[in-house]
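Reopening this one. Same input as before:
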Amino acid sequence: MQFNVMQGYPEHLVMIAENDHGSIGVIRFDATKGDLMTYEASITIAPEARGMGMAAIILADACSYLPDFAIHAEIRHDNIASRKLFTRCGFDEIGREAGLLRYRKEPRA
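Same output, byte for byte:
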């Protein structure tokens, strides 16, 4: 797997995960307003690549591009697959509000 990186760095970083058959997912990191040391992550996996464990590989690899930054994610309470994904990739649940769960991965020390 490889990434096609489309940058708007430092405010945005969009990464398209590709394999030999084409694009399999997109992850986007957006800088938090007022804090360029924290990014908000969102991930989408192509329907044909779901259920094959690719999301964890893509998320972990993409996060490795930002080792010095904290990364947040907001996940709907009922999105069990995303909750498991972010937990599996080292994110901790840090709060709940209005049907959303907040997750955070600390920068590497």
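So the earlier flakiness isn't reproducible anymore. For the record, The radius of gyration is 13 Å.
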